[in-house]
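Posting for a labmate who doesn't have an account.
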Amino acid sequence: MKYEIIPQEETVLVKLTEDGYTEQLSLAEAPGEESSLVLQSKKDVLGEINLEKMLLNLDHCVDLLQITFNAVDGFPVQSKVQELINRFTDAMTKSNTMALEFRLAAEGVVEQYLDAYQNLFFGEVESALIFLTDIKQVAKKMVRQADELVNVFDGLTNYANTVLKEVMSERAADEKKRSETQALINELQGSLDAMEALKENLREDIEQATADYEKLQEREMKQEERAYNMQLASMIISEVSGLFGAATDAVTNKSDRDMAEKETVSESGESSAEVQTRRAYTENIGKQEQIQSAIRKINERIEAIDKILDGKLYAGGANHASADEADLDTQKTDDELRAEKQAKVDEKNRLSKQIDTLKGEEDTLSKTLSGFGVVMDKVAEDTRTAVQEIQKTADSLAERMSVIDKKRNELKKQERENLVKLAESTAKMENMVMDENALESAIQCLVIAIGCLRRVLAYLHEIKLFWSNVETFCDNLALNDSIAKLISTQENKTPEQRAVYFKTILFVKGYISIVAKWQALYVIFTEYLQALSKVSKRMTAVMEQSLSADRKEQWKLATQMAGELNERLEEEIKEAY
């Protein structure tokens, strides 16, 4: 930094230039808090401490201590937290008193230095040396006071650490009780779940078996009806063919018979019309089955989508918090699900039209096949065989229904016998769940208290470090005799010679640097006092609020305040970066 001295009538101006930045200071008035010399001196006091952040943390301590007090309500350690708050308040009071004295002392010292320079400007060293001697005593007193406050915060930090350990012990004890309670709940819940699972499995078996049995009965009736109709049609066709066969041969000329043979007999000797019609009929039925299968899958998909929409499990839905993250459907939006459903409905309608078309073709092919009596007899025989197989399955299902019904009766008997025991177990479990919920809340609040106390400890360490830095800084000021030595070298010279010397860069540079250091102390403790005033007012208000609430309200308040404080701290982090 470059210094330039500009003499005035009763003082000097000091022009400082560095990296293009220029400022002008006068030894007739205190340098401003934005002066580069003051800022550098503040940095010398604070070291790595961010004063603004440290003072904000003091305010956070109020919230953290209140949260801790509320969180440990109902625990013996709450009295220790109350004592910690009292000690913290006392420390803040002492700190406030000390800071006020430091601020006044620093302000007075700056004025003394400025007054002393007025004498030095005209070469009068005796008065200046008296001022400097008094200033040295002020600095020594500040060293002792800072040391006392360091010890106060050291004791406060140690006590906070003791309280933290006791809270952690409470948490460990409650976690043990919670584990024991949870083990009993699990044992009772296992018994209840086993009973419910048995009932549910049997109910599902009965419902499924009943549905299957009804389907088989319906299929059996349709197969019998179809077989009867086919057999009847075959018989009618056979009778008609026998009745009108001779007349047909008489009136049909030879060319017509040749044409019929060409149409009904392939080159390989097979009945081409019959084979092609049968193949077309089989393919038609196969296509219908494939389409029906596709429609069933579409219906299942539509039903699945409806369940997600009805349950509001889709992204943005009211119940989405309980959705399974592994289920990709629940991660879709309402619009995406409805769009997919509409696409499935459209696809289903298209396939249904294809089914209708194929059924029309089936009717046509069926009528064509009716001209082949032997085919109709074969189809009817196959149908009767299928019906017999279905009947066997139905008989087997009926036996299963009998077994299931027997099991159901056994279950009802077992339910009657265990009804009293089940009721007692349920009531006992409900009580344990209540106890476990209370323990869970307690543990949650203890965890919050532990986190708060750890942060308070960090803040207290920082304040202790701050006062240690102030002590060191003041000690350096008390031991610094450089200005006094420079003045003493001029004692034997004439006042005019002295006046010239005290206006040189060598002297003025060191002198204004000392003034800036004391001004930095003044600025620091001005900010410190403003922060402490806010802390003191808030501490009184929040403790009145905490002491007036009951246990559940205090736990609720602790959790709520912890969340709010966490949000504020996160915002501060974002602003910092």
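Reply:
Got it, the structure tokens are right above this. The radius of gyration is 49 Å.
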